[in-house]
Amino acid sequence: MEQFKKHQTKLIIAAIVVIFLVGLLIYSMKFKTSKQSFESETSGFIRINNLEKSDNMNEESHESQPETIKVDISGEVKMPGVYELSRDSRIHDLIKLAGGVTESANLNATNQSRALKDQDKIIIKSMMSASSESSETDDNKTQDSTKESGEIDLNTASESELQGITGIGQKKAQRIIDYRKKHGNFSSIDDLKNVTGIGDKFIESIRADVKV
């Protein structure tokens, strides 16, 4: 009888422990679910709040930019001056406001589709100025080309290149090269008079064709 009571007591204690553990597990699961729900709601609130702030900033930025710009136009237009246009305007819109171009305008030098910015300065060139600039550029190129092609370096020229100079044949060219090998590079064109067979008069006749 006494053993039965001891066994019964153990069963009761075991049952109490099991009930306690089950209750603890249920409480833990409910607490975890409640915490996740709270975090989800909080995260959603933060995202919504951030989106609202971003929208407000974009609206403020958009409102801070003026809807119009002011641009100056001059040159070959009928009514040069400063004009106020919408922010998305192009150069051809500005030309229309300025009354169009004159008969001497060179629109090929202007990109009429370019977008305008506030405080831009647009100059419409004339056909005459474009022609003058082109002619001046061509003249400069011709002069540079003539200068570069007409001068032969006495310190680097080969025998055949030296023979391309008026008055210098094979013998003179060879003597120039021999002198260069023996004495080093020429320091000036006048040093040519140290070469046998070359005098001051000959040097003056080729001065424009050579360099050192």
From TrEMBL:
Residues 128-153 are annotated as: Disordered. GO terms for cellular component: type II protein secretion system complex. The keyword Transport does not apply. The chain crosses the membrane at residues 12-29. InterPro entries: Competence_ComEA_HhH, Endo/Exo/Phosphatase_dom_1, Hlx-hairpin-Hlx_DNA-bd_motif, RuvA_2-like, Soluble_ligand-bd. Coiled coil: none annotated. This is Helix-hairpin-helix DNA-binding motif class 1 domain-containing protein. The lineage of its organism: Bacteria, Bacillati, Bacillota, Bacilli, Lactobacillales.
